[in-house]
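Response to reviewer comment R2.3. The reviewers asked that we include at least one raw input/output pair. We reproduce the pair for Cytochrome c-type biogenesis protein CcsB here without editing.
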Amino acid sequence: MSQETFAHVSNLVIPTATVIYVLAMMAHAMEWATGRAAKAPATAAPAEQPAEVLVGAASPVGGAGAGESGSGGAAADVVRAGAGDAAEKAAAASRVGLLLTWLGFVLHLAGVVTRGLAAGRVPWGNMYEFSITSSLAVAVVYLAFVHRYKLQWLGLGVTLVIAAVLGLATLLLYTPAGPLVPALHSYWLVIHVSAAAISGGAFTVGALISILYLVKSRAERRVLAGGIMSPSLKRLPSAEAMDGTAYKVLAFAFPLWTFGVLVAGPIWAEYAWGRYWGWDPKEVWALVTWVVYAAYLHARATAGWRGRPAATIAIVGWLVFLFDFVGVNLLVSGLHSYAGV
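Raw output as returned:
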């Protein structure tokens, strides 16, 4: 196949993968909606049973009380059956969403690989290519951890982020495949950018978990105060478990970011520009990102800084990473303005 053919295949497969991710997102949205419906009738069932039923059940005379008790039991059985059906539908929607995510991932991977074959190099030499590669990294991290940490409940957020990034990249950032800028001709490109992409994917997954952690912890506090929790939120793990999962994901990402951005990056800069560090805007914001996540890990490991404060720092770190990834390239002029990293 010629490079033009590979480019055509990539340009066809990436939008197709975007559509598949959107379908996966819709399946996960249906999972949440169906899970909410599964619990809705159950709270009303006890109130529908009149007080006389309980009195009649205790009376030695069966009469009307026994009949009402029987109908109340039947009504409860109907509610339980309906809740069971809805739970099965939610589980089925979850499985469909995960299968579609896998299908989208395979097409996404094919699109990134054929883009590289079309360009005759690694496919992350500009913002478009880094966007499709970094969003692929989000899918890789999610699918790698989905069974180990039972992260199916994160599918809606993950597919939303991936579909949004791919859609924006295709519509706004697309650049035809071509040769690299001379400064990028180095094997450090592979090391630096691949480490940044994988750690960025992990930062995204960790931030999504942290956002849901804040929602779930607030709901748990309402329950302790005598309130009730949304049926959808009951399907999430406990806030404590989510806090631990976010920490594990971000602890995995931080060493990668440290090596790829603050070790391999300066070495590559010395090769390309003759200096290790020049306080270029991209370098500065990469360092700021590192500082925020270092503060997160320190806060998470310090007594009293787990939970909400640590989750807030994780979300701030992700926002800083997004600005480093997108904002610096689009809003600030610097040596990295031609590239995605």
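Confidence is low (pLDDT under 50) at residues 40-69. Residues 206 and 249 are 6 Å apart (CA to CA). Further pairs are available on request from the corresponding author.
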